[in-house]
Design goal:
alpha+beta, Adenine-n6-DNA-methyltransferase TaqI, Chain A, domain 2, 3 domains, four-stranded mixed β-sheet
C-alpha cells in the first residue's frame, strides 16, 4: 500500500477505528419482536442501500440476531463479492451473517461505508474467503485490513462525492422502474382500446422439432437477454460436437419455452441456431407478429393468465406446451400488432439507454472512489447535495 503524500492522513487498521459490536439477542422478546430485521438479502449489492424493510415478527424470526445501534454500518460477511453494506438509520436487528460496525470518533459512518464498498476492501475480503474455501470473511481476517484514513473534514468531502453519484444512480434506477411500469400499463390500455379477439395459444404457435443441423450455432436460453448465441455468454460450456445432432433448430422469430419459468418462461429468438432437445421450440403462425408477442409474453397481463394455467409456476415448475396451449391470448389485427411492437421497441430502447447510463455512473463512482479513498485525488471542499 503506497503512502499518500497528504497532510493528516494516517495508516490504520479497520478495527482500530470501527468496532464490531455483535451483541446477540432473542428476536422473539416483546421489546425486540417489532424491530426492523435486516438480512443480507435486504441490502442492494454495491450501492449501500437497504431495500424493503420488515420486522422480526413479520419475518418469523426465531434464531439469535445482532442488536444494531443507529448510524452503525452493517456489513454482510457472507459472499463478500456481492458488496452488501448499509448504514442503519434507526435501531435495528441484523442477521448473524452480518457484522454491525460502530464508528469511533476517528471515522464517520458514511466514510466507513465507502471503505467497505470499495474495490480495495472487496478484493481483500474475496482473497480471504478464497484462502479458506468458504465464501465469507471473519473478524480476525477483517482485523488484517489496513488503509489510510484522512481527517474528518476530508472524510466529509469524499463522502459528499459518493452521495452525489449515489443520488444520480438512484434517480436513474427510479426512471428505469417507471419506464417498465409504464410499458405494462400501456400494454393493458392499448389492448383494451382495440378490443382484440382472443385465441388459444395453440392456434397461434406450433411446437416444432427440427433436428440434424450440425452447421448451426448453439443458442442459449436466458431470461434477461432472451435466446442468444452461446458465444455471447460470459461462461463457456464445452461439449462434444456429435451431441449437437440431437439439438432442435430455432429460426429467427421463434420462441423457446424456458426450463426456468418463474419470469414468464417464453423467450424470443432473433437468431437462427440450435438449442438443447430439453427445450420446446414454438413457431408463430403467419397471422402472428413475433415482435408483438415478444413484448406481450413478458407483460404482467400474460403472467397473470399464465399463473392461473400453471399451478406452482412461482416454485420453479417448468411450463410445458399443454399448459401454454390452453391460455387465451389477445390477438389484435396484424397491422396493429406491428404498430404496438414498434411502440414497445421504442420504450425498450429508452430503458436500455437508462441502464447504460446507470452502468456508466457506477463505473464513474468506482473510479472516483478509488482515487479519493487512496488519497491520489483530494476534494478541496464538499460537493453540494443540491447539485
Amino acid at each position: 500500500m503506497s503512502k499518500p503524500m497528504l497532510q493528516g492522513w494516517r495508516e490504520v487498521g479497520l478495527l482500530e477505528v470501527a468496532l464490531i459490536k455483535a451483541r446477540l439477542v432473542d428476536p422473539r422478546k416483546p421489546e425486540l419482536n417489532d424491530m426492523i430485521l435486516i438480512a443480507p438479502d435486504h441490502i442492494q449489492s454495491g450501492v449501500g442501500r437497504i431495500g424493503e424493510k420488515a420486522t422480526a415478527r413479520e419475518q418469523g424470526a426465531i434464531s439469535g440476531k445482532f442488536y444494531v445501534k443507529k448510524n452503525s454500518v452493517i456489513y454482510s460477511k457472507i459472499r463478500p463479492y456481492l458488496m452488501k453494506a448499509a448504514i442503519a438509520d434507526e435501531e435495528v436487528l441484523c442477521s448473524a451473517d452480518m457484522y454491525p460496525f460502530e464508528c469511533t470518533g476517528d471515522i464517520t459512518s458514511t466514510y466507513l461505508l465507502n471503505v467497505l464498498l470499495s474495490k480495495r476492501f472487496t478484493d481483500f475480503a474475496i482473497s480471504c474467503s478464497s484462502r479458506t474455501g468458504i465464501p465469507k470473511i471473519n473478524r480476525e481476517e477483517i482485523s488484517g485490513f489496513r488503509f489510510f484514513l484522512p481527517p474528518i473534514s476530508d472524510q466529509i468531502n469524499i463522502s459528499s462525492v459518493a452521495f452525489l453519484w449515489d443520488a444520480a444512480i438512484e434517480k436513474t434506477e427510479q426512471l428505469i422502474t417507471a419506464k417498465l411500469r409504464a410499458k405494462d400499463s400501456y400494454a393493458i390500455f392499448l389492448l383494451a382500446a382495440k378490443h382484440p379477439d382472443f385465441k388459444r395459444a395453440d392456434e397461434l404457435f406450433t411446437p416444432v422439432s427440427e433436428k440434424g443441423r450440425d452447421d448451426l450455432q448453439i443458442l442459449s436460453v436466458t431470461q434477461d437477454q432472451g435466446v442468444i448465441p452461446r458465444s455471447m455468454l460470459d461462461k463457456q460450456i464445452l461439449m462434444e460436437a456429435s451431441s449437437v445432432s440431437s439439438f432442435k433448430v430455432v429460426r429467427e422469430g421463434d420462441f423457446v419455452i424456458s426450463l426456468r419459468s418463474f419470469q414468464g418462461g417464453l423467450e424470443y429468438s432473433p437468431y437462427k441456431g440450435v438449442v438443447s432437445p430439453a427445450y420446446t421450440v414454438l413457431r408463430p403462425r403467419e397471422d402472428v407478429c413475433p415482435e408483438f408477442f415478444r413484448h406481450y409474453l413478458k407483460s404482467k397481463d400474460f403472467l397473470q393468465r399464465l399463473s392461473v394455467a400453471v399451478i406452482g409456476i412461482r416454485d420453479g415448475k417448468q411450463i410445458n406446451f399443454s399448459d401454454f396451449a390452453s391460455i387465451k391470448l389477445p390477438v389484435p389485427p396484424r397491422d396493429a400488432q406491428v404498430q404496438y411492437a414498434e411502440f414497445f421497441d421504442a420504450m425498450e430502447c429508452e430503458v436500455v439507454l437508462l441502464k447504460r447510463q446507470k452502468d456508466s455512473l457506477q463505473k464513474q463512482k468506482r473510479g472516483l472512489m478509488q482515487k479519493l479513498l487512496t488519497g491520489q485525488w483530494r476534494m478541496a471542499k464538499p460537493v453540494s447535495k443540491e447539485l
